[in-house]
Amino acid sequence: MTSPSLRLSRIAIYTTLLAACALYLVPLLVMLLTSFKTPRTSAPATC
């Protein structure tokens, strides 16, 4: 049986690692989503 403090520190470590992974993958996700734009939707807006 693990102690509660060890379990809490493990949860904190995994939470931090998951947050770092999510932060690292956001630019890749943005790049992937913007690559599917059609020429019409990627054209600059005219006022």
Spell out the key features of this protein.
2 helices, 47 residues, 0% strand, mainly alpha
What would you say this structure looks like, in words?
The protein is built from two helices and no strands. The protein has 47 residues and is mostly helical. The termini are far apart. The mean pLDDT is 87.
Question: What is the distance, rounded to the nearest whole angstrom, between the alpha carbons of the first and last residues?
Answer: 66 Å
Please report the total strand number as a whole number: 0
Radius of gyration: 20 Å
Helix content: over 70%
- Individual helix count: 2
Following the backbone from N to C, one meets helices and strands in this order, namely HH
Chain-averaged pLDDT: 87
Residue fraction in strands = under 5%
What's the shape? rod-shaped
- What structural class results from the helix and strand content? mainly alpha
Largest sheet, if any? none
Unreliable residue runs: none
Short description:
The chain has 47 residues and is mainly alpha-helical. It is 74% helix and 0% strand. It has helices at 4-34, 39-42.
Please write out the topology.
Blueprint: H1 4-34, H2 39-42
